[in-house]
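Is it possible to get an amino acid sequence alongside its tokenized fold?
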Amino acid sequence: MSQRTICVECDGVYWNEARLRCVCCALPLPSSSRRRPNGQARYVCSDCASAPPPFDATLALADYRAPLDGLALGLKFRARLALGREFADRLARLADDLFDTVDRPDVLAPVPLARKRLIERGFNQAWEIARPLARALHIPGDAALIRRDIDTAPQSRLDLEARRHNVDTAFTVAKPVRGMHAAIVDDVMTSGATLEALARTLKAAGARRVTNFVVLRTPKN
């Protein structure tokens, strides 16, 4: 019986996609995309160029599409926790390129769940990725860095503006972050509203930089 977490076919055909992405929000980009003004070979989408988000960078492994969407759902709803380690290993390898040009984060934290939802599920899928990722990157991981104070409605049921309003005041930074580079980990990034709210909260608490690590990115907002 195979001990692989992800089969060879999925790994070879779907996972290792070479794709130019926006350095800020990780959306796929056309080859004609604009370089950042500093001349580095890093690119931004038109939305991030005209209205930069509160976070500074996003790393994503792949697009949210079959069969990888099933892997994300398997971790989140069927407790396939070994996938958290698999995702973390791949994100750690992807991060090597980023750390050639920017400093490593000082702390790494998952997108927090509300207490009720955490009790119901029994685990936070983002922490199942963040914990082994922190070890792989030799960065302190802290599941208690950010607290979700409001048990918000599921984001999947809302449009973009409603998503932003839904999570705008949902989070509190529970520990000092002044002057720090903070990294946030999540399984799927869709509109980016949750990660924007977290970044604003961290920056308001004094964080100097916020980087997102996400497993899958929806191709369009």
Q: What stands out?
A: The chain has one domain: 8-217. The CA atoms of residues 187 and 215 lie 5 Å apart.
